[in-house]
Design brief:
The N and C termini lie far apart (58 Å). Helix 1 packs parallel to helix 7 and helix 8 crosses helix 10. It contains 16 helices and 13 strands. The protein is an alpha/beta fold. It has two domains: 208 residues, NAD(P)-binding Rossmann-like Domain (Rossmann fold); 176 residues, 3-Layer(aba) Sandwich (Rossmann fold). A six-stranded parallel beta sheet has the order 3-2-1-4-5-6. The longest helix has 31 residues.
Length: 447
């Protein structure tokens, strides 16, 4: 809309007419599905990513995330609806800019907004009147106004007057085929009415329901609340798992029975630790921010302690089982770990407890191999760079009998758990996968 009417009404009209160009910064698990959703609704979209391999893949019509078929990318790319670039100098082209970049933690569990601030500076360098900027990255309440807005206003333009600014939290659940980008309602918050209306209209172009809230900080708090809710409840069942196991009670049987109650209960499941970009990280954003108000988030911090202790519990169970069954310790044992992904049926290993388990096992003197059909090779990561390049073993039930134990960390559906339980000497199952698969449980230990 450069050179045209850039009033709020004109910007809103162009968005509703689907003549506006949408820009998405960060083409990962959040950004790529957004691009596909806009493109398939007939909205032109320009993706930005600092990793040049992603724009190259899009130009070639190839998806680099297994949950999205390459045909979807190819159709949009060949039709010119979806293009991508690593050139941030083109940020003046989109009429709406959506920021979908990572928000990790530092080693001291403090927010690391480096990617947000760098992206904001890149936008500010090219910001023009009439653009709308929407932050989607999960963060603490106040980030949009306190961090992003001042950076953007270094351009000389004023938020709510010259450009529009909002926050709309990503709500992606990788691998979920029931709830997708186009069906999960989008919460939209902004600190002026025009920004709120314009931002909501951006998402309404691909038919998703929108829920407007009174401020960007409120929208930020919505996402933090959703993730803290999950983290706390997962911590609860992880703690119950320890208590019930000591009593000889199977936690998974308890949950299966409890969830038959049609009200007042929602099932959560234990595991070897938290994974993904949201649940292990986001609660600590609020914990950090609360200190500014002289408040201690004891409940959230306790949940974090319980969840982060789960890998050590799993290894303790492994050591106990090896000792009782084979008079063997973890030191010197051969272990096969099943699953590098943080959750089943996805090629996403962000914050995966599997990576921590491998490192801890090797530090204890074990030799560790892994199998994961979604990860033939472990890619490079910031926290576990030394594991990059390791390759999955082939699926071979006969060969698996040579390992002292098989540790199920991720319960992909493409695994023959019955055959595994019959072939392995010992299975440490953190997901109840063997029981669900109808396996003989005589060599299986739930952990």
């Amino acid at each position: 809309m450069s050179g045209q009417d850039v009033s709020a009404g004109a910007v809103l009209s162009s968005i509703q007419a689907k003549t506006a160009l949408v820009g998405v910064i960060g083409l990962g698990y959040v950004g790529l599905p957004l691009c596909l959703s806009f493109g398939e609704a007939g909205v032109r979209v320009l993706g930005f990513d600092s990793d040049p391999s992603k724009p190259e893949a899009i130009a070639a019509g190839r998806s680099y995330l297994t949950q999205f078929a390459s045909d979807r990318v190819k159709t949009l790319a060949r039709g010119g609806t979806f293009t991508a670039t690593s050139d941030m100098n083109r940020l003046d082209e989109p009429d709406a800019i959506l920021i979908c970049v990572p928000t990790p933690l530092t080693r001291h569990l403090e927010p690391d907004l480096t990617f947000v601030t760098q992206t904001g500076e890149a936008i500010a360098a090219r910001l023009r009147r009439g653009q709308v900027v929407i932050l989607e990255s999960t963060t603490y309440p106040g980030t949009t106004v306190e961090v992003l807005k001042p950076i953007l206003e270094k351009s000389g333009l004023v938020a709510g007057v010259d450009f529009w600014l909002a926050f709309s939290p990503e709500r992606e659940d990788p691998g979920n085929k029931t709830h997708t980008t186009t069906t999960i309602p989008k919460v939209v918050g902004a600190d002026d009415e025009d920004s709120r209306r314009i931002a909501a209209a951006v998402y309404e172009t691909f038919g998703v329901p929108t829920v407007s809230v009174s401020s960007s900080a409120t929208a930020e708090a919505v996402k933090i609340t959703e993730n803290i809710f999950r983290a706390v409840n997962i911590a609860l069942v992880n703690e119950l798992k320890l208590v019930y196991a000591r009593m000889g009670i199977n936690i998974w049987e308890v949950i299966d029975a409890a969830k038959t109650k049609p009200f007042g209960y929602m099932p959560f499941y234990p595991g070897p630790g938290l994974g993904g970009h949201c649940i292990p990280i986001d609660p600590f954003y609020l914990t950090w921010k609360a200190k500014e108000f002289d408040l201690s988030t004891r409940f959230i911090e306790l949940a974090g302690q319980i969840n982060t202790s789960m890998p050590d519990h799993v290894l303790a169970e492994l050591g106990r089982a090896l000792g009782e069954r084979f008079r063997k310790s973890v030191n010197g044992a051969r272990i096969l770990l099943l699953g590098i992904a943080y959750k089943k049926n996805v090629d996403d290993m962000r914050e995966s407890p599997s990576l921590k388990l491998i490192e801890k096992l090797e530090a204890m003197g074990a030799t560790v191999d892994y199998f994961d059909s979604y990860f033939p090779t472990i890619p490079k990561s910031r926290e576990h760079a030394e594991l990059a390049g390791r390759k999955s073993v082939a699926w071979d039930l006969d060969a698996f009998g040579a390992y002292d134990a098989v540790l199920i960390a991720t319960d992909h559906d493409d695994v023959d758990y019955r055959g595994l339980a019959d072939s392995a000497r010992l299975v440490i199952d953190t997901r109840n996968a063997c029981a669900r698969g109808g396996a003989d449980m005589s060599r299986v230990v739930l952990a």
